[in-house]
Amino acid sequence: MVTPQIYAARRQAAIKFKSIVGIRDGKNEVVIAIRRHAGRFPVYAVRNGDHLECYNIVNGGMAPDGRRISSNGVMTG
To answer: How many domains would you assign to the chain?
Structure first.
């Protein structure tokens, strides 16, 4: 259940995240917080046109795993 306090904290975290993205000159990393959920996590992906191609890290390299994330956030594959 999401309480008003949890909602407010999540909203502030989102605002803070947006404020730091623009000041990281030359960086292309996004730091994420891990949370509990039923899906596979973390998900690594790179942009390919209008979608993200997912991959696993295998022996220090990128190995495509066949999943995609659409521009509206739907994962397939």
So the answer is: 1
Per the structure, the complete domain to which residue 60 belongs is given by 4-76
Contact 54, 68 (CB under 8 A): yes
pLDDT tens sequence for the chain (77 residues):
778 998 888 888 777 765 555 555 555 555 555 555 556 667 888 888 888 899 988 898 899 999 998 887 788 88
Question: What's the burial of 55, exposed, middle or buried (CB within 10 Å: 0-12/13-18/19+)?
Answer: middle
Of 41, 23, 45, 21, give the one whose Cα is nearest residue 31. Answer: 21
